[in-house]
Amino acid sequence: MSGGGIRPATSFTSAARETLKNRTLRANLGFATRTICAKRERVVDEIEDWQATRSAGAALKDHALANLEENLLLLEKQVEAAGGTVHWAATAQEAVEIVAKIARSHRISEVVKVKSITSDEIELNDSLKKQGIEAIETDLAELICQLADDSPSHILVPAIHKNREEIRQLFATKLGVEIESSEPHRLAEVARLHLREKFLTAKMAVSGANFAVASTGSIGIVESEGNGRMCLTLPDILVTIMGIEKVLPEWSDVATLMRLLPRSSTAERMNPYTSVWTGVTPGDGPQEFHLILLDNGRTNVLDDPVGRQTLRCIRCSACLNVCPVYQRVGGHAYGSVYPGPIGAILTPQLLAMADENANTLPFASSMCGACYEACPVKINIPEVLAYLRGKTHKQPVELAAFQVAYWVMSDSRRFSAALRGKRIGASVASMFGLVKGWTDSREMPEVPAESFRDWWRKRDR
Amino acid sequence: MTAKERILSRIRTAAVPREDYFRTETPVQPASIDLFCERVADYRAIVHRVSQDEVSATLNRICEGRRCLVAADFEFVIEGAIADAGFTHAELVDFETTITSCAVGIAESGTIVLDAGQGQGRRAITLIPDHHVCIIRADQVVSSLEEGLERVMVTRPLTFISGPSATSDIELVRVEGVHGPRKLEVLVVKA
Ligand code: SF4
To answer: Residue A123 C-alpha to ligand 1 middle, in angstroms?
Structure first.
């Protein structure tokens, strides 16, 4: 299935036990994440003050979230003034139903899709299929996953677990074309020809959104291949599903976002294409536009003073690439469309900390802090992880341990002191030792002279 | 309660504290044309630096022997180029090259922005043909993203272009050209 969803079928530990057996996956993933990290460093170093840019990004998102109601209402007003229609969906089901209804009202049975994790979150493809509507993925990697009936394993390079020969065979059997070579150029060409026909005939497209601007009613999509432009330009009808946390107040705020996102994501100065549109433009692009504003648990996250920073996330995947746990177990182990460190904090919160399997995700971390350092909007992922661990354990002694851990991690000085193996580190480590499930499967190590993070870094060079 | 009311009431319950937020003014800096050209070329786009007098000849040379399309209000004359007369998408497939102007160039990121203004036409014409040639005057190049955003008409359809279409989806090998134009040429006209 390429739908996805966010409810893990098992605990993280048992899922990881399975994925750890897959050596190809681990090798591919190791290569991919190392390559992206090295490239990223170069384009990040180019920015005069990267730390200040990160802080600006964090402050911007916090500001946008603090005024979320006004921003959403203004966005709605502006989109409608420009000829679009705005829908609100409190749940995944409501969002899917809105999309299906629009398709049905035009008697459409096939839609083209721009890669969108939000649509995977609500399992749009599978749900539409049940209603007789085929959703065709047009991003190369998503197309590969869809044809292979597989779920994406990485936010940015979803098919990283497949090598060129596997892809050649897949295209040959599923698309029925002879492909003499497995050169990536040739495979991309096959996808181009296959999808071109779909783009030219599609009546309706479904997309996500990277940002929306409240003051103007504009929506933006960031991409590389041009499949996004195709979907946003050629069909008659466009439906965009956007998480409510994506709205920015002003057009000028987009500059801050665009300085952070491509660098953190594909490790580029700028991605090849960014499309921005406002409602409907006569004679140019879709003449019917629908914007679906999706909650699906986001207001749960907003309601928590510590967890709320999770909503700053711009889905760049930098935290995945630097994460030693993710590099080993791969995206599938997280059992949700949101893998890696961001998944470990976002998935359980979207499910209101009420899903037992999702509640094991905050334990999928060595607490090394690399994700926090990489995050362009400064989400303190270790802090949120420790905090969420505390929320999943009800026994008083365990709770106390996690509260101490949270106290340490919520302050960067305390945190690095702990990591450097000072006394406080030892006491936190022994607090962790109190927790069943943590010590069951591993020995509690001595606090080392060198922090795990320092060791990991050196080892990778 | 409607979905909208439910969502908004939950946002209100969350009562996220508001803090002062100030947007910093980015100082307007003289843009470096060299930097712009270098960064556009970094994306493996072809950059031509020409004077005003050389534009027509250069365009004619690039377009020779190709079926060429221009926006209806394109300001340069190119022999044999056809002005967009509202062709269908299927008809656009038959064009090999599209030549347009643009709204602004951003040196910081090597980006050109189309905003459907003079000489740029609707989005489909710069998307379907496989070869896009874009003309930019030196005075249209700004230094930062902030300045770039200020210069475009935000409520018109915008396309930010930084190099030709690309993917790294197969084993992280970069392949230029998937769905958008596989070849991008930028003509920078000296002031
Ligand atoms: S949490 Fe930060 S680093 Fe991770 S995907 Fe979101 S924005 Fe990127």
So the answer is: 22
- List chain A domain ranges: 12-299, 403-458
Contacts of B86 in chain A (CB under 8 A): 283
Question: A interface mutation test: which of B88, B113, B145, B167 has the most A CBs within 10 A?
Answer: B167
pLDDT at A393: 67
* Sign of the dihedral defined by the CA atoms of residues A399, A401, A406, A411, in that order: positive
pTM (predicted TM-score): 0.90
**A172 in Cβ contact with A187 (< 8 Å):** no
Average pLDDT over residues B170-184: 83
Contact A208, A260 (CB under 8 A): no
Tell me the nearest-neighbour CA distance from B187 into chain A, angstroms: 18
Residue A384, ligand 1, Cβ within 6 A: no
How many angstroms away from the CA of B62 is the closest CA of chain A?
A: 23
CATH 3.40.50.10420 assigned to A12-299: yes
CA-based nearest residue to A75, from B22, B147, B116, B7: B7
| Closest by CA position to B84, among listed B57, B47, B116, B56 | B116
At B109-154, the pLDDT tens digits run: 999 999 999 999 999 999 999 999 999 999 999 999 999 999 999 9
Q: Is A32 exposed, middle or buried (0-12, 13-18, 19+ CB in 10 A)?
A: buried
**What's the number of domains chain B is made of?**
1
Give me the interface pTM, i.e. the ipTM.
0.96
Name residue B134's beta-bridge partners.
B100, B186
From the number of C-beta atoms within 10 Å of its C-beta (0-12, 13-18, 19+), residue A61 rates as buried
Provide the token pair at B2: 């409607």
Among protein residues, the one whose CA lies closest to atom 3 of ligand 1: A375
Tell me whether residue B10 is in a domain. no
Q: Whose CA is nearest to atom 8 of ligand 1?
A: A316
